[in-house]
Specification:
Largest sheet: 10 strands, antiparallel, barrel
Order of helices and strands: HEEEEEEEEEE
Number of helices: 1
Strand order of the largest sheet: 1-2-3-4-5-6-7-8-9-10
Structural class: alpha+beta
Amino acid sequence: MSKLYLSLLFALTGHLLAGQSLSKKTTTDFNKLKWMMGTWTRTDSEPGQTGIESWQKISPHEFQGSGVTMKGADTLFIEKLKIEIRDNSIYYASDVPENPKPVSFALTEITESGFVCENPQHDFPKKISYQLSGESLKATISGNGKSIDYFFVKN
């Protein structure tokens, strides 16, 4: 009985340690995204329009953001955004009026200054990428042979 108990204990301990190392990597990757915090103003908005994307840290495992496009005092578009650790993975979620519920995109690539998230099942976009260069940010949505870039500067 004691051999069985020890074998189970070692197996459980090994499983827990393996989970911790993955969790540590996920947390490390998530922390690489801190550069996003703050307010970003679009530099390529249509004439007469302004666009702003803002991000704030909600918890050690969640950032919330919003994207707003304005024309004068009129709101043309609002997007609720979230980046979170869920099920030991990182997801970017977008909630826009056109979709009945938020759409999640799994993180597939990350560096110190950018990341890519993908959801091949979504109609458009299938891929969302952010790339930081100094105080400038390029966000790209793409899929189905189409690609749209958005350019921002940090306020």
